[in-house]
Structures are given as structure tokens and as C-alpha cells.
């Protein structure tokens, strides 16, 4: 890993996060939000990949040190999240990233996967400093983002064969964003499955779709954060 674990406080509690500073010395800040598995090595490697592209990436640990490889346990951990508390953690993580010496500029991006995709939209709607949001097949039944208060465009990355994300919900989201005048682009990858970006899960990983989604993500963030 190219980054390191750090601690930050929300005023009453300390939290852990993985920080990967830009390999160029300084770069735009990107918050990376975990899947329902926890802050696992895959998410840390994603942060390192952002650092290689010139961004400074921070992934807060929303499960307080816990992680799992079991779907049932992951679902329980996701459902147990206190959304108000999670919002406070994300808000402080954004502030922590903004004041980091390796972060450049006042625009922050947010990228989330699965559970984190929905939380990325939630964070973007709650924090006007976020000027670009990337939602990888986001899902969380208890999170309702505020699209009206988004301060930047949204890139949505979805899979054709996704048992977790209903295509009709994706269409409805796009329609609502359009009605609100919010700039967005949604991409659905033919043949891909939910979590196709996670190269630690060979049963669903799609190398071609993941590579294209990564290129789109980097281009989107560079266009909107620099």
C-alpha cells in the first residue's frame, strides 16, 4: 500500500481513515467510500490508484475497524449504520482532507461503491464543497440523498445484470436529476454484474468494464476538480 492509516475526530469520537497522498506532491482531494464489506484492501488500493493519478484520496472507516467477507454479515453491518452519525463522519473526513497539505484547491470529489455509491450521493447533497460525485452502482435502503442541493455533476456507473440496483430506479434517478437541472451522465455496462469493479471478487469482476469505468472516473474528476 502506498498510503497510511490516520485518525481524525468529529468532535466527540476518533475515527480511522486510509490516506493516500498525491504522487505529484499535491492534488485535488477525493473522498472514497467503502462497499458494505468495510474498509478493505480493495478500497485502499483504489485510493492508491487515485494518488497515482495525481489526486489525494481519503477513505474513512465507517465500520470502526470491522470488516467481513460474508454477505449476510455485510448486509447486517450496512443496515446497522446510523446515517446521521455516518453523515457527521463523512463531513469531518471532508474537512480533514481539505486541510491536508497534500490536497490542492477547494473543490472535493467523492467516489463510492455499492453502499458507498449511495452515501457518495448523500455526502454530495449535504456538503457544497463537493463539486463532483461518482456513484458506482449505489444502493442503501435507508439513505435518501438530496439531489436538489447537489453542487456539482454526477457520474453514475451501473451494471446491466445487477440484482441489487433496479434499472427502473436508475431511470427514475436520472429523470429526477434532469427535472432539477442537475448535470449527470449515467453509464450501464452490458453484461456486467453488481460490483464488477472489485478485482478481489473474481466471480463478478469485469476487467474491460472496470478499465473503462476507471478512465471515465479519472477524466470526470480532472474536468471538474482542477
Automatic annotation (TrEMBL):
<dbReference type="GO" id="GO:0016787">
    <property type="term" value="F:hydrolase activity"/>
</dbReference>
<feature type="region of interest" description="Disordered">
    <location>
        <begin position="1"/>
        <end position="24"/>
    </location>
</feature>
<protein>
    <submittedName>
        <fullName>Dienelactone hydrolase family</fullName>
    </submittedName>
</protein>
<dbReference type="InterPro" id="IPR051049">
    <property type="entry name" value="Dienelactone_hydrolase-like"/>
</dbReference>
<keyword id="KW-0378">Hydrolase</keyword>
<dbReference type="InterPro" id="IPR002925">
    <property type="entry name" value="Dienelactn_hydro"/>
</dbReference>
<feature type="domain" description="Dienelactone hydrolase">
    <location>
        <begin position="16"/>
        <end position="223"/>
    </location>
</feature>
<dbReference type="Pfam" id="PF01738">
    <property type="entry name" value="DLH"/>
</dbReference>
<dbReference type="InterPro" id="IPR029058">
    <property type="entry name" value="AB_hydrolase_fold"/>
</dbReference>
Amino acid at each position: 500500500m502506498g498510503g497510511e492509516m490516520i485518525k481524525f475526530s468529529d468532535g466527540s469520537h476518533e475515527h480511522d481513515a486510509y490516506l493516500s497522498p498525491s504522487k505529484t506532491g499535491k492534488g485535488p482531494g477525493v473522498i472514497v467510500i467503502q462497499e458494505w464489506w468495510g474498509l478493505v484492501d480493495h478500497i485502499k488500493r483504489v485510493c492508491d490508484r487515485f494518488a497515482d493519478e495525481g489526486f489525494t484520496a481519503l477513505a474513512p472507516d465507517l465500520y470502526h475497524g470491522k470488516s467481513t467477507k460474508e454477505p449476510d454479515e455485510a448486509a447486517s453491518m450496512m443496515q446497522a449504520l446510523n446515517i446521521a452519525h455516518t453523515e457527521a463522519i463523512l463531513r469531518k473526513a471532508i474537512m480533514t482532507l481539505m486541510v491536508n497539505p497534500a490536497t490542492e484547491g477547494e473543490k472535493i470529489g467523492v467516489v463510492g461503491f455499492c453502499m458507498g455509491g449511495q452515501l457518495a450521493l448523500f455526502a454530495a447533497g449535504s456538503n457544497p464543497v463537493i463539486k463532483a460525485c461518482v456513484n458506482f452502482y449505489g444502493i442503501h435502503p435507508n439513505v435518501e440523498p438530496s439531489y436538489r442541493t447537489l453542487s456539482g455533476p454526477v457520474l453514475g456507473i451501473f451494471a446491466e445484470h445487477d440484482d441489487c440496483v433496479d434499472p427502473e430506479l436508475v431511470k427514475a434517478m436520472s429523470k429526477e436529476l434532469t427535472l432539477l437541472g442537475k448535470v449527470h451522465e449515467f453509464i450501464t455496462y452490458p453484461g456486467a454484474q453488481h460490483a464488477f469493479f472489485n478485482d478481489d471478487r473474481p466471480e463478478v469482476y469485469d476487467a474491460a468494464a472496470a478499465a473503462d469505468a476507471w478512465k471515465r472516473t479519472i477524466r470526470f474528476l480532472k474536468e471538474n476538480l482542477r
